[in-house]
């Protein structure tokens, strides 16, 4: 029987867990590579670099069903623009604090078609939730939102201390 070294990897024989995100698999592979470098280099003078990888939950914004968002600094206010096609404004919930904006939405649609010997029923639903950290403090009580053609725009006035100050050179 042939003995395999630690560097031989057969994906079919590895214990595979179903992960919630492809980033979990990526993280696992990177940590495995780090371990291999450590084993290869040993405990001599050369050491493999060790990284503290971030939790991958921060990549939820990359999911296909998450709205694409721009945050635009407009001197005295911030403009948050989110693309949310196919959603009605009644199905969108916005929460604003002094430092964050949370967008949530849910929609359900049902289509039925009946003809002679034919019956079709399709049900679709989609939902999202996204929390954005703002680059400065805002006056949440004065926020205003509009929704037109699948684009949500939220205007958030900055607090006085967050507004840009001009300075003259003496």
Task: Explain what the structure shows.
The structure is a single chain. The protein folds into two domains: 11-62; 63-162, Immunoglobulin-like (Sandwich), CATH 2.60.40. 12% of the residues lie in helices and 37% in strands. Mean pLDDT is 77; it is low at 1-19. With 170 residues, it is mainly beta. It is flat, with a radius of gyration of 25 Å. It starts with 21 loop residues before the first helix and ends in a 13-residue tail after the last strand. The strands form two sheets. A four-stranded antiparallel β-sheet has the order 1-2-7-6, with no helix packed on it. Strands 3-4-5 form a three-stranded antiparallel β-sheet, with no helix packed on it.
Low-pLDDT sequence parts: 1-19
Derived structural class: mainly beta
Residue-averaged pLDDT, rounded? 77
Q: Compute the number of strand runs.
A: 7
Q: Give the neighbour order of strands across the main sheet.
A: 1-2-7-6
Number of helices: 1
Order of helices and strands: HEEEEEEE
Query: Which shape, going by the Cα principal axes?
Result: flat
Q: Class of the largest domain, according to the CATH hierarchy?
A: Mainly Beta
């Amino acid at each position: 029987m042939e003995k395999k070294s630690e560097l031989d990897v057969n994906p079919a024989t590895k214990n595979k867990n179903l992960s919630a995100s492809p980033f979990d698999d990526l993280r696992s592979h990177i940590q495995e590579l780090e371990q291999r470098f450590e084993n290869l280099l040993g405990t001599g003078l050369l050491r493999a670099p060790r990284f503290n990888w971030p939790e991958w939950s921060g990549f939820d914004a990359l999911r296909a069903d998450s709205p694409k968002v721009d945050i635009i600094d407009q001197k005295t206010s911030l403009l948050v623009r989110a693309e949310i096609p196919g959603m009605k404004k009644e199905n969108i919930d916005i929460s604003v604090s002094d430092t964050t904006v949370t967008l949530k939405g849910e929609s359900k649609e049902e289509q039925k078609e009946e003809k002679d010997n034919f019956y079709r029923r399709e049900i679709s639903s989609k939902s999202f939730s996204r929390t954005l950290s703002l680059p400065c403090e805002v006056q949440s009580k004065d926020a205003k939102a509009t929704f037109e053609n699948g684009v949500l725009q939220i205007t958030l006035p900055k607090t006085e201390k967050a507004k840009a100050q001009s300075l003259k050179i003496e």
